[in-house]
Amino acid sequence: MSARIVFLGPLRDLVGVDDLDVPAPLDWSGLLEAVPPSVADQLKLERVNIACAGRVLSDKTALCAQDGEEVALLPPVSGG
């Protein structure tokens, strides 16, 4: 049983990989432990969002990813 963490944008650059499979179920504390400290620090910031199974979480600390689900780490978007 596993969930997949997908790193996007600058978070991918911090980790050096596109994704990571981790044991499921995956909660907020498990996510912070599964990623490198530099990414965990970013996740704690309000401007970084998390999507689980295709839905952006309004409260990322309520994360509960089940087997086969994807957790996308969404850095802030800039544009012009």
TrEMBL record:
| InterPro entries for this protein | Beta-grasp_dom_sf, Mopterin_synth/thiamin_S_b, ThiS/MoaD-like
- Gene3D superfamilies attached here? 3.10.20.30
Task: Name one matching Pfam family.
Answer: ThiS
Q: Which domain of life is it from?
A: Bacteria
Instruction: Provide the coiled-coil residue spans.
Output: none
The name under which this protein is listed is MoaD/ThiS family protein
Q: Which organism is it from?
A: Qipengyuania algicida
